[in-house]
Each structure stands twice: as C-alpha cells, then as structure tokens.
Amino acid sequence: MTAAVRTTCPYCGVGCGVVASSDGAGGWAISGDKEHPANAGRLCSKGSALGETLGLDGRLLHPVVDGRQASWDEALATVADRFSDVIAEHGAQAVAFYVSGQLLTEDYYVANKLMKGFIGSANIDTNSRLCMASSVAGHRRAFGGDVVPGNYEDLELADLVVLVGSNLAWCHPVLYQRLIRAKSERGTRIVVIDPRRTATCDAADLHLAIRPGSDVLLFNGLLAHLGRAGAMDQDFIATCTNGFAEAFLSAGDDACDMDAVALGCGLTLGEIQEFYNLFTGNSKTVTVYSQGVNQSSRGTDKVNAIVNCHLATGRIGKSGMGPFSVTGQPNAMGGREVGGLANQLAAHMGFTPDDIDRVGRFWQAPRMAQREGLKAVDLFQAIEAGKIKALWVMATNPAVSLPDADRVNRALASCPFVVVSDCVGDTDTTAYADVLLPAAGWGEKDGTVTNSERRISRQRGFLPNPGEAKPDWWIISQVAARMGWSDAFAYQSPADIFAEHAALSAFENDGSRAFDIGALTGVDYDTLPPTQWPARKSSGGTARLFAEGGFPTPDARARFVTVQAATPAMSASAEYPFILNTGRIRDQWHTMTRTGLVPRLSSHIAEPFVALNPADAATLNLTDDDLAVLRSAQGDATLRIRVTRDQPQGQLFAPMHWNRHFSGNGGINALTAPVTDAISGQPELKHTPASLTPF
Ligand code: SF4
C-alpha cells in the first residue's frame, strides 16, 4: 500500500490540506488533512469528491499539432519557432500568454520569466484578473503592496464579521464552517452585505440587501459615522497613516447623513443605524470581501472604502481585526507573488525603472519588458484587432470565462497561432488550438500554492503523469530552451524554481525595501510546512502584519484613499430592464471541467438557470421551471427559470459554470459586458443590463 500523500485542494482560495491514500482497490481515498492550519481535517463537497475526478476520461494525453498527434519534439519546436517568427517580424508586443490561478507558483514563475525577461513583453495576464485584481489594486493603493494583513483565525477571534459581496457558505465553505463554529461558541455577530439573499444569510444577524454598486456610499457613510461617534483611533491615524483628512472630508460630503446613505443604498434608516452601531461598538471586527466587491467597474474604490474604515479605527493586523480579501482561486496569490498580472513583476515589484533593472540583473535577462502589458479584457480585444498574432493559453478556459465570450471566441478564431496547454482535451478553448500540449493535473504534479491568508502549501503528486502529459514548468522551459535560452531555463525540478523565486525575494534586499514584504528565504521547499509569508530565515512565517504600521510604502505609512460613490458603468434601460448578476454555486468549480465529472456534485443543482423575484415572474407570466430567453447587448442564452424571494425585484442571478458541453449554449459570459474597473482592469461581471422573455 502506497503511503499517504499530503497535498492541497485544487479548488478555492481556502487552500485546504488534503491527504490522498490508496484505497487498496486501485483507487484513492481523499480526506482532509487534520494538521493543515486552513482546514484541520475539514473538506467541503467539492474537496471530498476529488477522488472521483482522477480518471482519464477526457484527458489530453498526447501533443497535437494541426489536429494530428505529434511528438513532444515536434510540438515544442513548432511553438518555439512560431513565437520566434512572430517576434522577429512584428516585435515582442505581438505575442501573449494567458495563464491561470490553477497553475502552481513554479509554473507561473517560469512563464513570467520567459515573457517578461526574455521575450521582452509584459503581455502575460491571468484569469486572476477576473478574481482578485481590484483587491490587489486597492491594497497597493492603501498598503503599498499586494498584502492581506490578517488570517483565517481572525474570523474566529472577531466579535463582528462583516461579509461584503461574499457568499462564503458556497464559495469558501470550510472557512464558513470555521466562522459558524465560532459563532456557536462565542456568539460572533455576522452582517452580510449583498443585494441578493444567499445561503450565507442563514447565519446573519443582519442582512443588508444594498442597491447593486452602492458599497462605496455605505462605507463612506460608515467612515463619517465613526468620526461623529468618536470611534477613530487617532493615535494609529497620526503615526501610521497619511491622507486621513482628505478622505474623511470627502466621505462626509459624499454621505452627508444617514438618511442620504439609506436612500442611496436602498436600505432603511434602521438598517443603516444597526450596521454602523455594530461596527462602532465592536473593536474586534473583520470585514471580508470577495467577488461582489472585486467584479465591479468601481471595485478598487470599493476595496479602499472598506480599508479606510479599518485604518481609521486601527483595526488591522491585530487578532480578530482587519480587512480580509478572500481569494477565489487555489493559487491566485501565489501567481501574484511571482508577477502573474500584466502590471506586476516578480517578488511584489512593479514596473519602476529600479525594479525593472533589479529583476533584469537577477535573471540576467536579455530583453526585460519596460512597461506594463495588456490586462485580460484588453488582451483579447487586441487579439481581435490583429495586434496579437501568437497566443499561448495555459490551464484556463477563456472562451467561457471572459466577459462578452462570443467576442472572445471570435478573437481566438482570428488569432494566427494559438497554443493551449491543458489537462483536458476538449474544452471551449482547445477547439481553437493550433498546438495542444498535454499538461499534468492535480494529483500528478508538484509545486506550491498560496491561499487567501498568505499561506504557502505544497501540492504533491501521487499519480504518474498519464500518457505523455508533462508539468507546465517543464513545457514552458522546453519552449524557452528552443527559443535560445536553455541556460536560464535549465530547471530540473519545481524545487529548483522555488529556490530561484525565494532568492529573488532576497536579491539586493536588506529588509528595508518595499518588496521585502514577500520574503521567502525562510521557506524550505522540501520540508515546507504550510507557512505564511513573509517568511525570513530569522523569523519564520508571519501570522499578521501592520498592527504597528510598517507598511511597504516609502514612508512606512498606510494611505487613506479618497473615494466617492458612483453608479455602476451600465444601467437598466427600457430595452434591458433587469440587472444580471453572475456567480458560483456550491458544488461546481469554474467551467466544470473537473467537478462536472462527478455525478453526485450535480445532484445539488443539475442545470443552469436564471433566478428572479416572484413579482417579476408574475409580470412576465413565468413560473418555476419555465424556459426563458435571457438577453443582453452582448448575447443571449435560453435558461430554466427559478422563482425565488431571494432575488430582489429587477435583479437576476445566473451561475457562471456551465459551458457548451453542459448547456448547449456558450454559457452566461456570452451575455456579460466587457466593462472593466479603470484601475484594476477587472471586469464588471455582476452588473449587466439584460432582458428576459418567455421562450
Ligand atoms: Fe477545496 Fe475550498 Fe472546499 Fe477547501 S473549501 S475543500 S479548498 S473547495
């Protein structure tokens, strides 16, 4: 019997530890790792079904070139030659990578190094752009770095947990279980701020069904109220922050009194007072925010409106206190650490001349990118415009998951050369590939991931690579070698790559530089226990940051950001009278290429749907289970109706998961608009004007 292997769940950003052990009958038993700090043995429905996703049905097992099985040699040479040809003829800006929070940190590191240091372009963006980009931008504005100050334990130690735009019960189930247990043991008060009533509201002491997009007004009103109530931490403001006076004055102008806030947020005065009094009266407060905040044309401002309230009260980095962004993907944070976004460099550096120079010298890079690259939505529009002539998609399915998906499909169809590396052979995106590269999947590959509380854990393989599948880091390194850079990409293992990544975090770094926040010198890949960065040799991991200031800004102070309430980019109209919101359901993950393999996960919700309020259903003469056509300016989909009081009037909700394999149409993102936050570039996936008519 094979010894048990300790690894990490490949789904959400909770990052639960998993133990895989042989069941003695040729299969694998999956259980929660009792020693992992994130989950202490717990798993949700998706994680506990992982053992049922390990079959080879649908796997991509061999390289494919122009539709026929090919050798690795031919496939790798084709990719290297075509990318080199495009770069020679059109320049480095004419090629791009679109990567994924499903990649391991080591895969991400190598892809970034190749594109940003050797090809000389920063046109590498990631599906994390759809997930966390607004929180990243908000944190960089406020803290000076892409840092989550606290940890999961804070949700258990808080007296008040405020959940903003987060259906934690379905999207981060094990963290929700921890919160519910704390509530039953110590009476934690829970406030849910979400336009619709979700499963998370079952545990809420107060549900604020705010008008979509009014979050900034609500938190500006809170900041003004904290001032009126004398609830500020004047000492923290004076010694650890800048910009308070401007932000406070502006918030007061924006949210001049509670009546104005209530009106603007679509709430009663009593609801506003109750929330503000709860926040004012509970110093141990954690505010959790997720996609309802991030996936917005004002997402960055929403993040800063929340963070302002925590800075004003000094509730940051102390046990049971802090603003807390929960990540959607298993490795969205690990990818960010190595510069996974088009506007970042590795080790938390940006595109300043100093950072470009430092990373370039560390890599001994022949052609460092000199400026930020194209963010996801802009990247695919550049492909459609003919500016990008070679694209490599790794471990993601943009034909379904990006907004205005039909346009993305047209862009992929028009791109002269498309490479897709994936474990799955037939996705909506692989259909456009000139070259398909079979990647090792969960249970096969080795590396690290970082969860929402900055905790780095190992993913470990316990299965052989099937067919000719290879790890992503190997595939990228082989292409780099064939493009002429074999020495710089001569990695023999993920451990080699992690060691280089850790060395970069310490390069010319005496601890005083801003990027020291991501120090990894105290992490040993081989023996790695789940560890929170920064992890220095001298001090090990770090549970919390910033309780006494020490922000990674030039003067070590946090910055209040002046933000003003604004409506979402698009409004309902006579033609499109509803607002369409999209999101996850409990038992599926992303575009269902893995969870769709497990029949029991479909017993919770078996098919795509659109949910609406009973009054709207009556007006449209629709009843439960009817079919209806949902339409926006971008596209349409025919969906089953769910009538529920959980939806406010005028608002629709549809899950994001189903693709053409499951639904017969292009999925809900055929309807969502390619409108983005001007700072973060994150798309507004939760606010698309739409119409609904009986089928
Ligand atoms: Fe996996 Fe997230 Fe479920 Fe944990 S909560 S088992 S990380 S999907």
UniProtKB/TrEMBL annotation:
Residues 2-58 form the 4Fe-4S Mo/W bis-MGD-type domain. One of its GO terms (cellular component) is oxidoreductase complex. Its cofactor is [4Fe-4S] cluster; Mo-bis(molybdopterin guanine dinucleotide). Coiled coil: none annotated. GO terms for biological process: cellular respiration; nitrate assimilation. It comes from the Bacteria. Keywords: 4Fe-4S, Iron, Iron-sulfur, Metal-binding, Molybdenum, Nitrate assimilation, Oxidoreductase. GO terms for molecular function: 4 iron, 4 sulfur cluster binding; metal ion binding; molybdopterin cofactor binding; oxidoreductase activity. Belongs to the prokaryotic molybdopterin-containing oxidoreductase family. NasA/NapA/NarB subfamily. This is Nitrate reductase. The chain holds residues 1 to 695 of 881 of the full protein.
